[in-house]
Amino acid sequence: MKQFFATLILILSINSSIAQDSAVKLGVSGLTHGHVGWILSRDSQTDIKMVGIVEPNKQLAQRLSNEFGFSMDMVFDTMDEMIKKVKPDAVAAFGNIKEHLNVVESCAPKGIHVMVEKPLATNLEDAKKIEALAKKYKIHVLTNYETSWYETNVKANDLLEKGTIGDLRKVIIRDGHKGPKKIGVSDEFLEWLSDPILNGGGAITDFGCYGANLMTWLMKGKRPNSITAVTQQLQPENNPNVDDDATIILTYDNEMAILEPSWNWPIGRKDMELYGTKGAIYSDNPTQLRLRLSKGYSDYTEETFLLGERQKPFDDPFSVFAAVINNQLILEPYNVYALENNMITMEILQAAITSSKTGTTINLKSN
């Protein structure tokens, strides 16, 4: 019996070693993004192994090292230094949005895959350079959105595809919170979130990208015909250099969308409403969805769905990243993570920013 358990322990140890060896070696570029805790606090799994971090701000790195327990020995000053030393298979970008292009420029020629936090870039020009590099060097470039993890959004799309609410006519997507300063983000995060160059704008980019991304997914990659946007600055004392409230209207042949990104919501939210010819779907939050079907003029039936987390690997962005890299997962066209979706998302954001600055409607149909 002792021999049996000794053999079993040896087998488990060998399997664990093999799993670690086959794990995607992940580098992290930047620690200033407030979402970086998602990877630093991630439970130990066999699909991803964090091998290096690029962060020149050693005071910030030490603070996070104390909080999350990673060794300062794995922190480097530059991407080139980190890549040369630990040879990552992939890099996750957690710096400012403007740095996304620099990360891809460093990684793509070496065949290193990249995942960035939303949005893909600060402007369409940088996004096109990222796309060209990804195609030239045949790497994956994924964009991570929190709403990609919402089972309610998947359920809403399934109901729409089944024709449950009839033909789609209008979508309303609301995203945001009280504002970065009011919710107490770190100084390092606030510094670039409120910078029009490093973030590409304020709420219009920080939260407008969610709606543009989801709408592109729902429309299966169809570009809007026109984009009209207005922005306001309702907290000049907190956001002196960028907008903090926006409304973006997208028109399609038979549908329209209203995106409402804001740093002025009294309660944080990421919700979506789909209106069809027969009823409506309310994706209230990550776990609750309501379905209303019309009965006459104003009457309706209502069904509430209480859902759990998405199934693996979709419950975790790093698991998705690893599965894509290992050819265990092929994302369907215009998936929310996919580059082709996020190129259209950037086209929408760029047009929205231009519209808000010029007071005109931007027509894409003729482009």
TrEMBL record:
Pfam families per UniProt: GFO_IDH_MocA (PF01408), GFO_IDH_MocA_C3 (PF22725)
Residue intervals of the Gfo/Idh/MocA-like oxidoreductase N-terminal domain: 42-142
Single Gene Ontology MF annotation: nucleotide binding
Species in which this protein is naturally found: Maribacter arcticus
Superkingdom of source: Bacteria
Endpoints of the signal sequence: 1-19
Presence of keyword Signal: yes
Residues covered by the GFO/IDH/MocA-like oxidoreductase domain: 155-281
InterPro entries, per the entry: Gfo/Idh/MocA-like_OxRdtase_N, Gfo/Idh/MocA_Oxidoreductases, GFO_IDH_MocA-like_dom, NAD(P)-bd_dom_sf
Record's protein name: Predicted dehydrogenase
Keyword terms, alphabetized: Signal
